[in-house]
Design a protein that fits this description.
heterodimer, A: mainly alpha, flat, B: mainly alpha, about 75% helix
């Protein structure tokens, strides 16, 4: 019983850092604007090649990390959970590079 | 009898397990995205990404899924405040947006098949359908879990003291969203 009560208490304290609904609406607005920018730059004449690829990847990473940090609350989680998630992400990136390097396709991909 | 849900380090074991599961899912989708990028130009004379992809349509689908992450986090927030009525409303909104996304994907797949891209047309078609199809299957599982949460909420209640199911499903749902962020950028925007 005591364990259950302390778990609930810890969870409440842990969530005290979470944002308000208004902040979540602002983050969603930010994500929508970034998505609109992503789509818009693909239509700009002359904005292509490496600069387009880099811009889209940077904007994608910004959206990814925003959702992970604020909507998934990873920013407020202990180190162990951050470690697990980012190890998975690094594993996925390592797999991606290994597969494409094996087929000599890494630099033709984008 | 009380059941301890914490690891020896004091972490909630269910949440820890969910993060470990999501890490493994990252590698699963990493493999599917790598396969797509490897085969994206092998069209066997069939249609390619440039001919098929309708970016404005997919952008709307992406927007819908992004907004479902907002409604999910609002459901989670209501659950934290023990506001069950608001939580149900946002859970239902999330499930509804998930179904809209799935409807869009069904429409997109039907259009592609009509234009000549079937699962066995080319390595491009196979890898595209496998990647986006598995993502769609994850969305469908999420919609089922959200619906189950709403039913459970009506039948026995889903207050904070009853466990952290809403939080775990929220993690899963946001994960589905971040995978789509990667797919939208790498598979759609970078290929047209």
């Amino acid at each position: 019983m005591a364990t259950e009560a302390s778990t609930v208490e810890e969870t409440t304290e842990e969530h005290a850092d979470h944002l308000s609904p208004a902040s979540y609406w602002m983050i969603a607005l930010f994500l929508a604007i970034v998505t609109a920018v992503e789509v818009a730059i693909t239509y700009i004449p002359g904005y292509d090649g490496t600069i387009l690829v880099v811009s889209l990847l940077v904007l994608g990473v910004v959206k990814f990390l925003t959702v992970v940090a604020f909507f998934m609350h990873l920013k407020y989680e202990p180190f162990t959970m951050n470690f697990m998630f980012y190890i998975g992400l690094l594993g996925a990136l390592a797999l991606f590079i290994a597969v494409l390097l094996s087929f000599r396709a890494l630099f033709d991909t984008f | 009898m009380a059941v301890a849900h914490t690891t020896s380090g004091g972490l909630d074991i269910r949440k820890t397990a969910m993060w470990a599961f999501l890490a493994s899912e990252l590698m699963f989708f990493g493999a599917l995205i790598s396969t797509f990028l490897l085969y994206r130009s092998r069209t066997n004379g069939g249609p390619d990404a440039h001919e098929l992809f309708d970016i404005p349509f997919t952008s709307v689908s992406s927007f819908v899924l992004l907004m479902s992450s907002l409604t999910m986090v609002l459901a989670h927030n209501a659950w934290e405040r023990d506001d069950e009525r608001q939580m149900r409303l946002w859970l239902l909104s999330t499930a509804g947006l998930g179904m809209v996304f799935l409807g869009g994907q069904f429409f997109e797949f039907s259009t592609f098949v009509h234009e000549g891209l079937k699962l066995n047309t080319s390595p491009f078609g196979s890898s595209f359908y496998m990647l986006t199809g598995f993502h769609g299957a994850h969305v469908a599982v999420g919609v089922l879990m959200l619906s189950a949460m709403v039913i459970i909420s009506f039948r026995v209640g889903l207050t904070k003291s009853r466990g952290m199911n809403v939080e775990l499903i929220a993690l899963y749902w946001h994960f589905v969203d971040i995978i789509w962020i990667v797919i939208f950028t790498v598979v759609y925007l970078l290929q047209v």
